[in-house]
Write a structure and sequence with these properties.
Layout (H helix, E strand, L loop, with lengths): L1 H16 L1 E6 L2 E6 L11 E3 L3 H6 L5 E3 L21 H19 L7 H12 L8 H7 L5 H9 L12 H10 L1 H10 L10 H4 L2 H7 L2 H15 L9 H14 L1 H26 L10 H7 L6 H9 L5 H4 L1
Antiparallel strand pairs: 1-2, 3-4
Helix pairs in contact: 3-8, 3-13, 6-7, 6-13, 6-15, 7-8, 11-15, 12-13, 13-14
Length: 316
């Protein structure tokens, strides 16, 4: 019997410690102290249980204490670290920087590299360099366009780093500027509910414009065609390309830069497709993104011309 009473007293004490007394209309109402803060501020709880109806008038509400919660809309200028992928972006950028300034073959600003650049400036249509390399190098011209077409529709509307300057500079230094931007940008949208309201003027009228997209594809093919003279002796041209990449710092770094942008575009294309496709086709996003790497840069341009428009759901 003594054990029974001791246990009862212990239980009663534990309950009293875990509860607080709230006085409502002259009645003392026990409330269990929550172990976790309420997820919302000033949450209103309707009185619906039989015991509660005994003490309260019908329809009366009890207001719980406000909990301090973090505002969902972060006013910071970056979301770095929110997505683990941001570490991959900045890590790849650091590797490219180390390769470009330390580990790449050849010498920085060597006489041969400077002569190659001057040759392009003096005669853009037929410079004195390996034809295959020149055709590939010309694809830098459409990098900012393709990146804008895949990034801008999903760009966050919560501030952050403006996308315009990095996209413009990507025509010259590609991932050297896009790496930091991708790592530090605010998290892109995953749902676009109202394209006519959420998309900016340039995105609606340029980056989403099909005539512009097909024009980009045509321009990309024209840039690539600059390497056509090398097809007269493809074996020699191919061997010359490999030798150039192995001996020229400018050629090796630009080739690595272009490769990184191609890899990034596979991810951006996949994410872009997810906000456009129907639910039953969302599993195709990864394969569609990966397929664009078969034609570096140009493959992503072809996707932009063929992708479904964002306005279809709204029109229906």
């Amino acid at each position: 019997m003594k054990t029974f009473f001791s246990s009862s007293i212990a239980v009663a004490t534990a309950v009293l410690l875990a509860t607080s007394i709230t006085t409502v209309n002259g009645f003392h109402v026990p409330q269990v102290r929550p172990s976790v803060a309420s997820p919302s501020l000033n949450r209103i709880v309707a009185v619906s249980s039989p015991s509660a109806r005994f003490f309260f008038k019908k329809g009366q509400l009890v207001e719980e204490p406000a909990a301090v919660v973090q505002d969902e809309e972060d006013g910071g200028w970056t979301d770095f670290g929110t997505d683990p992928l941001s570490y991959a972006y900045i890590g790849a950028w650091a590797v490219l920087m180390a390769f470009g300034f330390v580990f790449a073959p050849g010498e920085l600003s060597s006489a041969s590299d400077n002569a190659m650049i001057q040759s392009v400036i003096a005669n853009p249509t037929a410079p004195d360099m390996n034809s295959f390399y020149y055709g590939i190098f010309n694809e830098f011209a459409i990098i900012p366009i393709v990146l804008a077409c895949t990034i801008m529709p999903r760009a966050s509307d919560k501030g952050g780093i403006p996308a315009g300057p990095p996209l413009f500079l990507s025509a010259f230094i590609a991932y050297f500027i896009m790496g930091p931007y991708l790592a530090l940008r605010k998290q892109p949208k995953t749902i676009i509910a109202d394209p006519s309201e959420e998309l900016g003027w340039a995105t609606r009228n340029i980056w989403e414009n099909k005539l512009f997209n097909y024009g980009t594809v045509a321009f990309g093919i024209l840039c690539l065609a600059a390497g056509a003279p090398g097809l007269e002796n493809p074996t020699e041209s191919w061997n010359g390309l490999i030798d150039l990449i192995q001996t020229s710092r400018f050629a090796s770094v630009s080739f690595a830069d272009l490769s990184l942008i191609t890899l990034i575009l596979t991810k951006e294309v996949a994410e872009d497709y997810k906000v456009r496709c129907t639910p039953e086709n969302i599993d195709k996003a990864t394969a569609i993104g990966a397929s664009t790497a078969l034609l570096p840069i140009l493959g992503a341009a072809i996707y932009c011309a063929a992708r479904p428009p964002l306005l279809v759901a709204e029109e229906e």
